[in-house]
Write a sequence for this structure.
């Protein structure tokens, strides 16, 4: 078993029959009382965010999670279908289990988090940065690059990203999937 000294960001804990990922944690020490460990937790199997406090040394219940490489195949009425790149097994997952579904494109490789206790998929993580082609964007004004003005651009998956004025239709850009923000232009 683990105790509160094992808490770290990204650890998945079982609390009240729910799975929660540690987003932030810390400790409080007062003169009269023992040390308390606190954590902000985000639900893995639900969208709830909770805060939890433990006494120092108290037992916690971490869940062992493995990351497996999967490839995105298609989306239909039943959900998003992914294929394991090692054994070719397919799983269909709902949109709320994917961290940035608007940036998924056919054939893209992602990481699927699997709960080793139940062999059930828990979440899908896209790479932190991906390259996409702009399919539609209004032309920017020539010479208007002094300010940090942004314009909306539609990428190949249909998602809209705010880009600088000098970025045009047909160009490749790098996007941060966690924030949905433009990072830079990419040369072909």
């Amino acid at each position: 078993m683990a105790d509160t000294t094992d808490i770290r960001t990204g650890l998945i804990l079982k609390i009240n029959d729910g799975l929660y990922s540690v987003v932030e944690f810390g400790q409080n020490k007062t003169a009269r009382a023992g040390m308390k460990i606190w954590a902000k937790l985000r639900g893995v199997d639900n969208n709830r965010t909770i805060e939890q406090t433990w006494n120092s040394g108290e037992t916690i219940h971490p869940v062992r999670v493995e990351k497996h490489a999967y490839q995105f195949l298609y989306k239909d009425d039943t959900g998003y279908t992914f294929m394991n790149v090692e054994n070719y097994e397919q799983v269909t997952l709902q949109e709320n289990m994917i961290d940035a579904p608007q940036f998924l494109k056919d054939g893209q490789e992602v990481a699927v988090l699997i709960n080793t206790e139940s062999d059930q998929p828990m979440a899908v993580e896209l790479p932190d940065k991906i390259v996409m082609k702009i399919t539609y964007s209004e032309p920017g004004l020539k010479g208007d690059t002094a300010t940090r003005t942004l314009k909306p651009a539609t990428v190949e998956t249909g998602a809209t990203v705010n880009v600088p004025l000098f970025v045009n239709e047909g160009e490749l850009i790098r996007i941060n999937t966690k924030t949905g923000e433009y990072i830079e232009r990419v040369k072909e």
Remarks:
- The mean pLDDT is 87.
